[in-house]
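This part of the workshop introduces the protein records we will be handling. The question running through the whole workshop is how a given chain folds. To make this concrete, we reproduce a full record directly below:
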Amino acid sequence: MSIPSDIILYHYPFSPYARRITWYLALRRIPYAQCLQPPTLPRPDINALGISYRRIPVCSIGPDIYCDTRIILSALESHFPNSPLAASSPEHKAIEALLSRWAIDGGVFARAAQLIPPEMPLLKDSKFTKDREQYTGRSWSADNVKKMRPEALAHIRLEFDFLEKGLLADGREWILGTENPMLADVEAIWPFHWLTTLPSALPPSLISPTTHPHVFAWITRFSACIKSASSTLSKPTSLTGSAAAQHILSLPPSAFDTSVDANDPLQLTQGQDVEIWPIDSGFSHKDRGKLVGLSLRECVISVKSQDSGKEVLVHFPRTNFRIRALVAAGSSL
């Protein structure tokens, strides 16, 4: 089977994180295949590749698997270097990186998630709320959701204000003052765009096109660009889990540069058995394998697929991920 661009995206359509990737692919006009996943565990399609990681999306590019949107976006920029969306100047690269950390690690999305309206059907689904409690480590009960809402709204209002009176205050169309949306826009817009799609999430008296006209105009422009770009692409090829795994495992081994930074503070060595997991959410799911690559921004381990035992290289970012050497049974430190 021919897979467009040799990309398979494991996701579910209403995931705000997955939209970071689908938007990027649309803006770059890069066709891809998808393997749709349930919004809650289990996800046997991903587990079949030997991966325990529980967050969405996961993306294969050729024989390599990438976990976390930060490393996925970086890999796509690297694999498809023509007409990149990433900034080129050091100043703009810094802004782009800061926006990524602000939205993901700075609490913007965490607060946005606390504004999911309590009346939404998902929050009345015990399977969903139990799954998200395991994912985030906090209660998703109706009472707790209502209790957190005022504080979350205060924080999100502050972030809308930061954009309105800061980055977008001069009426520019895009964050970096460019003619078209760039990666910096993708990095910044996704929590705010998502909130505007949730009925009753934002009270109009506090956050609306009237109170924050620059931000809402930016979101409207971005949505129009995504719609226009998507119209030029065919719909993603949909694959079953078995078809996706069969394709990935049939490819020649990865040509990834298998180096480990000898100066890394963790002092790990190539071929060492390690485990890696995110420390901000989804932290109860740890992946174990042999260390293949370790750099300032990336960790790569080799795992074995469930059925065939074929080696698969899995890439993770370093930010907010913990890597630990595994000690063999009977060994002493």
Summary: Strands lie at 7-11, 33-36, 58-61, 64-67, 237-238, 273-278, 287-294, 298-304, 311-317, 321-325. The longest strand covers residues 287-294.
